[in-house]
Write a structure and sequence with these properties.
The chain has 242 residues and is α+β, with helices and mostly antiparallel strands. The chain has helices at 6-12, 18-26, 85-89, 115-122, 142-150, 183-190, 221-230, and strands at 4-5, 30-32, 35-36, 42-43, 49-51, 54-55, 64-69, 96-98, 106-112, 130-136, 153-154, 157-158, 163-168, 171-176, 195-203, 206-207, 216-218.
């Protein structure tokens, strides 16, 4: 019978991501067959896993949704927070966001119950493209575009080179493979520009397209197939995120 790490088994139920599972284990909230567990413990499909006394099982198939997050919605599974993404969507099964978009921003975010795909997508070293359309408070110059492309010093590092194209006098398109906290806003702020609107329009091969703000849809078969191809060689080890 196959043995797998406990955090992976938890994530595969759709309860939470693998990293969140590690936190639950560290906090002593997880038991296997009624017994306390240790980090790195392995389980089989016949073991009963509980979190805070609740048995977690996978009763539904994998869910993959594309959601157009509006401004003002917070990407958290904590339903005690007003305006959280879970209550806003109101999906009948347990799902969680892959990554986040900050509250003042909008656009494409994945929602899923597949913890395994979350880990593959989020690993920084896998270089998965994320594309944004950004509107700023004053006219964009060639110097601004070049500096944004070639790296900006923020958060004790310098951002990696990226693709930046001007759309009109106040709007540009940027494609990132990094995921630093509030990265685009910090980059613009360093150059004395203020972000007025920020919208994510693509993650890897998945485009927001004409999906209306506040609405969601399931991945198409071809979209999911291509996405899995893109992340097939993604490392899921902790070392990949260092």
């Amino acid at each position: 019978m196959e043995l797998k790490r406990l955090n992976k088994a938890i994530s595969e139920t759709g309860y939470c991501s693998r990293r969140a599972a590690d936190r639950l284990i560290e906090e002593g909230k997880v038991k296997v067959n009624g017994q306390p567990v240790e980090m790195g413990q392995k389980v089989t499909s016949e073991d009963q896993i509980t979190v805070d006394g609740e048995v977690i099982t996978k009763e539904v198939g994998n869910i993959y949704l594309i959601f157009n997050k509006p401004v003002g919605i917070t990407c958290t599974t904590d339903t005690s927070i007003k305006g959280n993404i879970i209550d806003f969507i109101g999906y009948p099964e347990r799902i969680f966001p892959v990554g986040r978009i900050d509250k003042p921003s909008e656009g494409l975010i994945f929602m899923t119950n597949d913890g395994d795909i979350v880990n593959k997508i989020l690993r920084a070293k896998n270089n998965h493209e994320k594309e944004y359309v950004v509107k700023v408070n004053k006219r964009i110059t060639k110097a601004f575009v070049e500096k944004m492309k070639n790296g900006i010093p923020i958060l004790d590092t310098v951002t990696e080179k990226c693709k930046v194209e001007q759309i009109d006098a106040y709007t540009f398109n940027i494609v990132l493979t990094q995921g630093l906290n509030r990265q685009i806003r910090r980059m613009c702020d360093y150059l004395d520009y203020e972000v007025r609107e920020l919208k994510r329009v693509r993650i890897m091969n998945i485009k927001l397209g004409s999906l209306k703000r506040g609405k969601y849809r399931s991945f198409t078969g071809p979209e999911l197939k291509k996405l899995n191809e893109l992340i097939s060689d993604s490392s899921k080890t902790e070392e990949a995120s260092l």
